[in-house]
Design a protein that fits this description.
Elements lengths: L1 E6 L4 E9 L5 E10 L6 H19 L3 E5 L7 H20 L4 E4 L1 H9 L6 H12 L8 H49 L1
Parallel strand pairs: 1-4, 4-5
Antiparallel strand pairs: 1-2, 2-3
Helix pairs in contact: 1-2, 3-5, 4-5
């Protein structure tokens, strides 16, 4: 499975591509950061982020895009900018028919380090180790984008199994309700 990991942001937006194999094997393909100057107008910055993401979507053709979900931030302005950057990338993926998955920072940290409260240095160290990189990815936005892609590769099979189990349970509930209704109808005759 080819996954594009996105650490959304306006000043720095991390983009990565990894290929997930069997088990927990992941192979890095590409990583970079799209940068925009803070003094530019919001619309222009979003356009640069969207153009960068679209170029990656067209070049690397991921099967899924994993984006960091804005969970909570003390700075509302930063949270809004992060959400807007993630939104334009999700839109670009949706226009190409590519599914988008959102993962919270704690889910990503837990998947990669085993600790949902790990700091950036721990995430970067584990990403470097997991991918067998000779040099740690920099800046942190690049490492975070890789961590998102790794997280999705490792969580997607479990999420798929849970969704299938929930669907089977829903089907069983519907069949049970139908049988119960038929039995009640037969008793009332």
């Amino acid at each position: 499975m080819r996954v594009m990991g996105v650490d959304p942001g306006l000043t720095r937006c991390g983009l990565s591509i990894v290929d997930g194999g069997s088990g927990r094997k992941v192979t890095p393909v590409a990583v970079d950061v799209v940068r925009t100057p803070p003094e530019w107008e919001l619309a222009q910055r979003l356009l640069v982020v969207a153009d960068g993401a679209e170029a990656w979507l067209d070049k690397y053709r991921p099967e899924v895009v994993a984006v960091e979900r804005v969970f909570s931030q003390h700075n509302v302005r930063t949270a809004m900018a992060t959400a807007q950057a993630g939104g334009v990338i999700a839109l670009a993926a949706a226009r190409r028919g590519i599914p988008v998955a959102f993962h919270t920072p704690s889910q990503v940290k837990a998947a990669v380090t085993g600790n949902g409260t790990a700091d950036k240095a721990q995430v970067t160290a584990m990403v470097t180790r997991i991918l067998g990189l000779a040099v740690a990815p920099k800046p942190a936005d690049a490492a975070d984008a890789l961590a998102l892609a790794i997280c999705h590769c490792w969580r997607a099979p479990m999420l798929d199994r849970m969704a299938k189990a929930e669907e089977l349970a829903a089907q069983a509930r519907r069949r049970y309700a139908e049988r119960l209704a038929q039995q009640r109808k037969a008793v009332s005759r």
